[in-house]
Hints:
8-stranded parallel beta barrel, binds ligand TNX
Amino acid sequence: MRNINQLSKLLFLVTILTLNSCSNNPEMKLSEAVLFPKPISLIETNSSFQLNEETKIVVTSDSKELVAAGNYLAELLNPATGFSLEAEVSSEKMNSNCIQLSISSLDAEFGKEGYILKIEESNVSLKASSVEGIIRGIQTIRQILPNEIESSNKVEQSWYLATGEIQDYPAYEYRGAMLDVARHFFGVEDVKRYIDLLAAYKLNVLHLHLSDDQGWRIEIKSWPNLTTHGGSTEVGGGEGGFYTQDQYKDIVAYAAERYITIIPEIDMPGHTNAALASYPELNCDGKATELYSGIEVGFSTLCTDKEITYEFIDDVVRELAAMTPGAYIHIGGDESHVTEIEDYIPFINRVQEIVKAHNKKVIGWDEIALADIKENTVVQFWAKTENALKGVQKKGKVLMSPAKKTYLDMKYDSLTKIGLSWAATIELDSAYLWTPETYVKGITKNDILGVESPLWSETIETIDDIEYMAFPRIIGHSEIGWTPAEKRSWEDYIQRLSKHTQRLKAMNVNYYNSNLLLEELK
Ligand code: TNX
């Protein structure tokens, strides 16, 4: 009897010891993780989960997309940790030391991109209604881990995630960036790098401005001179360049793995000198123009009353639509200063029909609201509030890109060495301190599709330039698109952003080190 008693005492001790060894993980506060965009809700439970080489990334169904999401997480974690994590399929209940990714229907407000992330000492569970939500939640897991997780080389340290629960979903369904690859051309690797950076902040659209006066950047097989001639220069007279259709498809696929949609823009009827230089028949006088490498705007137009113009557009839109899984084609429409308004309106109306015939919806800069836009057409507000309001009256949706707030090519202040300043100089506070649903009187949340930050490249030549102008302003824009206005404040934002500069360094981002960043928190 005494022996049994002693045995049970011993068992008791061993149990306590094992339990204790499970909770040897350090106490950590989830609220101290620096998260961008700021999540909707966060509860902390003051312990931690350890990620180690034994951790399993488990996906609960064998759907190809979910397995790919699991491997995307593994790819984010493997370089810095030196582990060889890989997604495994298992529908069984979680063992310990798992990061489990599962699809299960969450409440309606979570939408496609919302997720619930539960971190316990023994396991991590990430649930969403669709794989898109899993990809967004993976970015949160990534930001909860130490900054060193961003290193591309192995770092010797332990990897803990603070425990707790995050419930999260976006305010706006469209949160984008635009890159002008026409004024200066950027190659596939640069675009992929930008896509990776956008993904980290849960952005879901990259709009590529593929044509302008200075260059045509996408191969159109039925009109080959567009690229061989029209793609052969850029601002300053450099050699320009273009994407072959295969390269473009590769960009689209790379973005799709991160649940980022590529929206192609062919700007028309203005901003078309590269096309007009490549094909004389697109000009009213039948003569090809010279290639252009300056930075003036508003001097070119397609000949709106020639049939060949619409055959050309139909071919371009057909080839583009075939490479575009997303719903939208952007038709530009801005600054057509040499197109008469009597020509502009029927032109936009007709192009809208062409895009529709290829089963895509139209986005255009706010000037297109002057035409008879369709209900599902999107008006991208950049300059004129009256155009944006016209768009809403005509039952279009508005994409918010006010130049004074979102234009990433605007200088931070008068000392910024690159960039323009025609709309404003935009310091970090100005970029952050605005709200889409109150920015234009008469345009409410229901009218707004989302937010986009354009980066025009007249003065932008390298990926370092791109990063310098985009970061950290675009992080603020991502938060404006994701986090409801009542949960945002400048004071809280600048504190978090100051700490986040450490992560930007770990990500090798060439960010602008603003004086507004708080020295003591960097
Ligand atoms: C205006 S924004 C433009 C672009 C220029 C940009 C420079 C818009 C629709 N048109 O053609 O690149 O300003 O900031």
